Here is the input.
Amino acid sequence: MKSVDWTGRRALVIGADGEPGRDMALALAERGMKLALTGGDAAALMRTAALTGRPLDMLVLPADLGNSRDVDNIMHIMEGHFKGLDVLASASDESMALALCRRVMPLMQASDQPVVLAFTEELMALAKDAGIRVASGLDA
Here is the structure.
């Protein structure tokens, strides 16, 4: 199977302030992706960005996903700065994270090769309903 070229793709990592999200962010950054990192702990997001070795290339978006203004801000940045979204990775299955995932699906559907890195049944179902390919890892 041919390996996917992830270089330059735009990714949103939800929950990048925790260990699973940090690990996803580091793996995506290693493959040359442009990352937006979100989560509730700003200091932990900054540490994740620093660990990538390219902290100035990361969008660090501290957010309370239960706050509609924070979610709107993330959407505005994804639409304006990133001009879309190719990869969604979520380390959270909380209802608020899934609500953000639902909001970004139209951005993903506009991508030529959208991929959801899904680790929960709920996110896999959401991606499937949107007609977006689900991968369980970066080489899938």
Observations:
- The chain has one domain: 10-135.
- Residues 10-135 form a domain with the Rossmann fold fold (CATH 3.40.50.720).
